[in-house]
Design goal:
Low-confidence stretches: none
Radius of gyration: 29 Å
Number of strands: 40
Shape: globular
Strand order of the largest sheet: 14-13-10-11-12-15-23-21-20
Distance between the termini: 71 Å
Number of helices: 17
Structural class: alpha+beta
Mean pLDDT: 93
Largest sheet: 9 strands, antiparallel
Helix content: 25-40%
Strand content: 25-35%
């Protein structure tokens, strides 16, 4: 076995590989840029080598710098993680030439699977189901109809040189195919100067389902079942699970066998993933093969009990797979939520800064019999850098059934404390409660269809609001009792704690009375419903773990005047707990309106002003570009929401702005 492995990566995947290497008794080498000098993976590794400035193209993806680090440390093998150099054929070839073992597939397999046209042809030759289509030259509309009839409707008619939706039509019958071909050809000719058209099957109700394969150097290949990855935003996976709630055993077997056939066809070894698009009738079609460890591999590990990183290392060391296909069973259900440093309330714009609080849920077995796992590469007090992927952590749960795994995830998300940056915890928590997700009836269009206007927060169902009301009533009594026991008060000025309270939250109001005892409190609603609340929460604690009517409830807690700021299940709300008289007076108070910012262009994220596209005094139209802001190496164009005249420009190119700083004002 190898004595020393270098991890050519950073963040959570580097930490993940280090954990397994340590378990196997293998020494590890981390590499790091200036931005990662204090990163968690650097602290965890046995050795660390500095490889350059923060930008990845000057550090993590410079092959010569990685090779220098290998020579300095005498590492015998390299694990590439995912991203960066993990699917670079020239990196694998450079390692092979230097006599260093690449913990991944051979370079020819990376090369052949890295090209979409080549990989599709290899897949077809290997008997893998691919999207039916015609890639040759189509002479006219009649030939287009004939080809469409053969493929079967609906079909997608696309311009070969297309982009931005131009030259693209969906046809559901022969007439639409004829018209669509002519319109697509005209658009393609005028937009791209290239009127070549191809036709392929249009997949309806598409799901993104992938098969995990493992192949050794002795001709053995197995599939470790599937992962459902349909919850995506702009092709970025957000939630994954294993197995898929959609597949039956027959489809699973067929997909797995075809994935192995493709792996064998290219001489694949190590862990790899074959991605498929699956329609509403369980017809599946090859998309691509990822020749590396996938981000979402933990859910496969949780349902199989295998360590994929360990198996990759053993395969690279020449060992045969220790099991056969028939040994691989599905045990229970696993969920993964990707925690990103992006603000869901601001259309998921990147968020950078310091993690002033980072408290993941406790890993391991839960009180309900499930499992919580958190793969991360950050720590409290650390910074989220603008230079790299915004992933903070991958929170995973396991339970015997899908509904139990979802419930474990809900509680784990409610327990996860992150402060200091914007993050998508509220959004993934909202998805876990969405009826369409819990039913398993989702497609790759789920987020676009269910959140067309973006994420605006969560309005909780009335039964959940009642549980929160009962919990906060009991918590308020604990606070009031503590205040009543302050020493040094004047005689006859003792604070009396009443039993009757009014709880206001999310436009609901509940009149309750609280009967407390040594073990907890019974909250009695005006309609007669009683809820028993048990908790050891004390004022000042930011997390309250309670039991309400025998079921667990976890609340993130902050103090506000006469109540709490409560975050739970994706909702962020003010909960006011008032005496009946105070509640009566509060109803008479005018509602405070938010400030009017309609005449300002505000910076939506911390970023660098790259360009100001208008001048003072200029009239702008709705949708016109006003400024360009760069954050996390992505440029974002800010556009006018309505017609107006620029009164004043407050920021110039090169300026670094905070969130909501004024870029320009309008008349």
């Amino acid at each position: 076995m190898f004595k020393k492995i270098l991890i050519a990566n950073r963040g959570e995947i580097a930490c993940r590989v280090i954990k397994t290497a340590r378990k196997m008794g293998i020494q590890t080498v981390a590499v790091y840029s200036d931005a990662d000098a204090n990163a968690l993976h650097v602290k965890m590794a046995d050795e660390a080598v500095h490889i350059g400035p923060p930008p990845a193209n000057q550090s993590y993806i410079v092959i010569d710098k990685i090779m220098d680090a290998i020579r300095q440390t005498g590492a015998e093998a390299v694990h590439p993680g995912y991203g960066f150099l993990s699917e670079r054929m020239d990196f694998a070839a450079a390692l092979e030439e230097a006599g260093v073992v690449f913990v991944g597939p051979p370079s020819p397999a990376i090369e052949s699977m890295g090209d979409k046209i080549t990989s599709k042809k290899i897949a077809q030759d290997a008997g893998v189901s691919t999207v039916p289509g015609y890639m040759g030259l189509i002479a006219d509309a009649e030939e287009a109809v004939k080809i469409s009839d053969q493929i079967g409707y609906p079909v997608m008619i696309k311009a070969s040189a297309g982009g931005g939706g131009k030259g693209m039509r969906i046809a559901w019958n022969a007439q639409e195919a004829r018209e669509g071909f002519e319109m697509s050809q005209n658009e393609a000719r005028s937009s791209f100067g290239d009127d070549r058209i191809f036709i392929e099957k249009f997949v309806t109700q598409p799901r993104h389902i992938e098969i995990q394969v493992l192949a050794d150097k002795h001709g053995n290949c197995v599939y470790l079942h599937e992962r459902e990855c349909s919850i995506q935003r702009r092709n970025q996976k957000v939630i994954e699970e294993a197995p898929s709630p959609f597949l039956d055993e027959k489809t699973r077997k067929a997909m797995g066998e075809q994935a192995c056939a493709l792996a064998k066809a290219v001489g694949y070894t190590s862990a790899g993933t074959v991605e498929f698009i699956v329609d509403g009738n369980r017809n599946f079609y090859f998309l691509e093969m990822n020749t590396r460890l996938q981000v979402e591999h933990p859910v496969t590990e949780l349902i199989t009990g295998l360590d994929l990183v360990e198996l990759m290392i053993r395969i690279a060391n020449g060992e045969p797979l220790p099991f056969k296909q028939e040994d691989l069973k599905i045990n229970g259900w696993a969920m993964e939520s990707r925690l990103y440093a992006e603000d869901p309330y601001r259309n998921f714009l990147p968020s950078i800064g310091r993690l002033t609080r980072y408290r993941p849920p406790v890993e391991g077995k839960t009180a309900r019999g499930g499992i919580v796992r958190n793969d991360t590469g950050v720590f409290e007090g650390g910074e989220i850098s603008m230079y790299y992927d915004p992933m903070i952590a991958k929170l995973c749960t396991w339970a015997p059934t899908r509904s139990e795994a979802i419930e474990e995830m809900r509680l784990a998300l409610d327990t996860f404390e992150v402060e200091g940056i914007g993050h998508n915890l509220p959004f993934v928590a909202a998805v876990m409660d969405h009826p369409r997700f819990t039913s398993g009836n989702m497609t790759t269009a789920f987020i676009a269809e269910e959140y067309p206007e973006g994420f605006q927060g969560v309005t909780l169902d009335e039964p959940v609001l009642r549980r929160v009301a009962a919990a906060t009533a009991a918590m308020n009594r604990v606070s009031e009792i503590r205040l009543s026991r302050i020493s040094g008060t004047l005689g006859n000025h003792e604070r009396k704690v009443g039993d009757d309270w009014v709880i206001s939250l999310q436009d609901h109001e509940y009149k309750v009375s609280v009967a407390a005892d040594h073990d907890g409190a019974t909250v009695i609603f005006v309609d007669g419903q009683k809820m028993r609340v048990v908790s050891d929460w004390q004022p000042g604690q930011s997390l309250a773990k309670l039991t309400v009517d025998g079921e667990p409830l976890v609340l993130k807690v902050g103090l506000i005047p006469m109540g709490f700021r409560i975050r739970v299940r994706g909702a962020d709300m003010k909960v006011h707990v008032r005496t009946p008289r105070a509640a009566e007076l509060a109803r008479l108070m005018p509602e405070k309106m938010p400030p009017d910012t309609s005449k300002f262009l505000l910076c939506p994220m911390p970023g660098l002003i790259v360009k100001i596209s208008v001048e003072e005094g200029q009239e702008v139209q709705e949708g016109q570009a006003l400024a360009t802001v760069e954050a996390m190496k992505m440029e974002n164009i800010l556009r006018a929401e309505r017609k107006g005249i620029v009164k004043k420009i407050n920021a110039a190119p090169g300026a670094s702005l905070k969130v909501d700083e004024i870029i320009m004002e309008f008349e």
